[in-house]
Design goal:
- The protein is of the alpha/beta class and about 200 residues long.
- It has a single domain, classed as Uracil-DNA Glycosylase, subunit E (3-Layer(aba) Sandwich).
- About 35% of the residues lie in helices and about 15% in strands.
- It is built from seven helices and six strands, in the order ββααβαβααββαα.
- It has a six-stranded mixed sheet with strand order 1-3-2-4-6-5, sandwiched between helices.
- A hairpin with a 2-residue loop joins strand 5 and strand 6.
- Helix 1 crosses helix 7.
- About 45% of the residues are buried.
């Protein structure tokens, strides 16, 4: 299965993101092999920095480092895919400003919902940052579920047990992009959250 052939945006109604940076994973994979889905914020400004763009990709470099920090012996995103870990973004277009409007997150959550439904064996979701958390809460609401992650600062709410349709869900910080190299305290917490998630895959 190639994800971008199954889901995507056709209308592009959102005005606060860069549609030229629109990306849905083109990676070819067996959907039944995925047990952990990591959802980050938005597509990068340049496609060469996306998860599946190769070793020079910024998203690949910071994400692999995050998993190495958590004690996993991996060198590439493909290594992680081979372990059943899939990566995507909540918003499929690139950011223009620092923040993304809630209307855009809600609109793009419909695509994310369809994307999640492609993977029947996912047992763990990692929501990397506020945008991913908000998107998942919108999806849960549409399905008649309570919000997955409560309101509050991530450092206060992480470490508790949260679930989306019975599947364990971790709120954490953004691991994809340049901020990962700067915010050392968050990097440590990201590693802890990934380690906790990986323990559930054993």
């Amino acid at each position: 299965m190639q994800v971008n052939k199954c889901v995507g945006c056709e209308a592009f109604p959102c005005l606060d993101v860069n549609h030229d940076c629109y990306l849905v994973p083109e990676v070819e994979l067996d959907p039944e092999s995925v047990s952990l889905m990591m959802i980050s914020e938005a597509a990068p400004k340049e496609s060469k920095d996306y998860y599946y763009a190769g070793a020079e990709s910024l998203f690949e470099q910071t994400t692999v480092l995050a998993f190495q920090d958590a004690g996993l012996d991996v060198d590439t995103v493909q290594d992680l895919l081979d372990r059943g870990i899939y990566f995507t973004t909540a918003v499929k277009c690139g950011k223009i400003d620092y923040s993304i409007k809630v209307g855009t997150i809600k609109e793009c959550s419909f695509i994310l919902e369809q994307e999640i439904d492609l993977f029947p064996n996912v047992r763990i979701f990692m929501l990397m940052g506020d945008v991913a958390i908000k998107a998942m809460n919108y999806i849960a609401k549409r399905k008649g579920e309570p919000r997955v992650i409560p309101a509050g600062s991530t450092y206060k709410i992480r470490g508790e047990d949260y679930y989306y349709l019975g599947r364990r869900t971790f709120p954490s910080y953004l691991q994809a992009g340049p901020s990962f190299f700067i915010e050392r305290s968050k990097r440590k917490m990201i590693a802890e959250d990934i380690s906790d998630a990986l323990a559930l895959m054993d």
